[in-house]
Design goal:
2 copies of one chain form a homodimer.
Chain A: H1 6-17, H2 27-40, E1 50-57, H3 72-83, H4 87-95, E2 98-105, E3 116-118, H5 136-151, E4 157-163, H6 167-179, H7 183-186, H8 195-209, H9 218-225, H10 228-242, E5 246-249, H11 252-264, E6 272-274, H12 283-289, H13 306-324, H14 328-331
Parallel strand pairs in A: 1-2, 1-4, 2-3, 4-5, 5-6
Helix pairs in contact in A: 1-2, 2-13, 4-13, 5-10, 6-8, 6-9, 6-11, 10-11
Chain lengths: 336, 336
């Protein structure tokens, strides 16, 4: 009996519908349970171990003043992750996930911390308003490094987060080119630009978008406009999905990476959970283009993997439902 | 410095805005953290211990064939709760909450299980299609028993759930009378009525509603149309809130109990978290009338406290955010 086969699907439906609850009464929790069962090929799925991998990198386009925060914050936040004081690390402790922090290409000298995983492609990308953000060779190194990290560890559930000042700009350009969405419709305030800052960011991104054709492939979009953390995350999501691990997709930037992975390999879609709808302007449009319905809508716009972690308990509850709930027969409960 | 005072509010805002994230970037998690801080009167709120109290009772109106399930299911599900095989008990184990099961008035002989808390008001209510569901004295005993249970234990967070075949009918009538909502607009399929069943339920409830004036007080509505579990839950929610414990409100029936508690004592509102939007037809209208915005929307329609439990990790993450996250100053991160 293998996942996707008619006998597996019939057994899965019978197992979920046979639990002591009206048919369908657990809504999206039932859908999550079915997704995990198909991915793991079992009616007793497990979602206990979760690893959050946070990719950090800098962006040449930050020189265009597209962020409310200085570029130094990327580096400072990496230290904050390692010290456990950032939102994602606090949530991970509270919710029971391990955290791995990856230097994918933070500006300045390499950070010296034994807990930091160094996969530096370079000290930040080039300014994609003026030319390609990275070479094809750099993109491939980032994808490969990500692929290795997506296979690492023993966790059944892989959450991915990012940090990188100006990376909503990179993500906006990547998804615009990948999905054919107009920049003006998806550009947003990022960490909190005011109206003047948003107008400036829009003008910068529209100009940058004019450098290349209307649509690009994932590989082209990543090289022209991506970030090292975005490319690495795309590689990690894909390899985690290939390894039949559940991929928890965070907000706007993680969704851009997921879009790259899924346009490259749509057959991996069954591993992806789109965890939340971000406040960032373009997220709803990108999720819509991917036909993805997010689990949560909490007004988050932080990244780091925070929204992915907040969905983890739902995944665990779904697995426990299918694994541990009694059936009408086993509990002696009358059916309707 | 006390909660609600200007100095407390200023310190709370400074603490949340000083965390290493853009102002407001954690959306509703920040609002939850602030709510818990105000309730506990501290900038280091705690939400580790959670108790789910499940109230079970039967309903005379079940005789009108308003449910897709036989009345015996209430009793069978109580046994399922005690055995740990029901959705709420599985979720509670997975998410780290203790469970207490209360017999508020299950039909038949008293259940004999040392783990069951017996607060039986009677073997189910009378049929509210024909006359009052309970006497004023029974309602007061239920409210008082609930009040005692809402104060019990040491948990900072109190979740409440229910089980009772036909209790969406009771809840529909209670909120219709309490909030002045037309029965036809809020009556729903409950555990899964088909179209004919729904039409029958609507006719029964509209007839029952005609017995009494358009609007009733909470005490009147509970006696005329309530259930022992609904009245007991209303009493428990109120006493938990008075004790400054966070009250996690589950779906449609729990929201009916919360509405009774809050119309009686609106000043307790700060303790209440409306955890999710149920699929049950009337829930959105009742939440709207209470000006409550639910945290989750997962298509649940089970009750038992399942939706309240799924919101618990969000509450814990919110408390941890305020308690444990670094500030820009402590982490040496540049501000925007």
């Amino acid at each position: 009996m293998s996942a996707g086969a008619p006998d597996f699907e019939a057994a899965l439906k019978a197992a979920i519908d046979g639990k002591t609850k009206p048919v369908g009464a657990l809504g999206r929790i039932e859908a999550l349970a079915a997704q995990l069962a198909r991915l793991q090929g079992t009616l007793a799925p497990v979602a206990e171990r979760c690893r959050l991998t946070i990719f950090a990198a800098d962006h040449g386009i930050a020189a265009e003043a597209v962020s409310a925060y200085p570029q130094a914050v990327t580096r400072e936040m990496v230290k904050n992750f390692l010290a456990g004081g950032a939102a994602a690390t606090v949530f991970a402790r509270e919710l029971g996930a391990e955290v791995v922090v990856v230097d994918a290409g933070v500006a300045g000298a390499p950070l010296d911390d034994p807990a930091l995983i160094s996969r530096r492609i370079g000290p930040g990308t080039a300014n994609s308003a003026l030319g390609p953000a990275m070479t094809g060779e750099e993109r491939d190194r980032a994808l490969d490094a990500g692929a290795e990290l997506g296979r690492a560890g023993q966790a059944e559930v892989m959450a991915f987060g990012e940090m990188g000042i100006a990376n909503t700009s990179a993500a906006t350009l990547v998804v615009a080119k990948l999905l054919g969405l107009p920049v003006a419709g998806i550009v947003g305030r990022g960490t909190g630009l005011d109206d003047a800052g948003l107008a400036r960011k829009r003008a910068v991104l529209e100009r940058a978008a004019l450098r290349t054709p209307w649509r690009l492939s994932p590989d082209e979009a990543l090289a022209e406009y991506g970030g090292f953390e975005i490319a690495m995350m795309a590689g990690a999501m894909a390899s985690a999905a290939v390894a039949r691990r559940l991929v928890l997709v965070d907000g706007f930037i993680a969704t851009a990476a997921a879009a790259c992975a899924l346009v490259r390999a749509p057959e991996l879609r069954g591993a992806f959970v789109f965890c939340h709808l971000s406040e960032e302007q373009g997220h709803a449009a990108v999720l819509h283009a991917l036909q993805a319905e997010p689990l949560l809508a909490l007004g988050l716009r932080l990244g780091e993997g925070t929204g992915a972690l907040l969905a983890l308990p739902l995944v665990r509850a779904a697995a426990a439902m299918l694994r541990d709930m009694a059936s009408f027969e086993s509990a002696g409960v009358s059916r309707g």
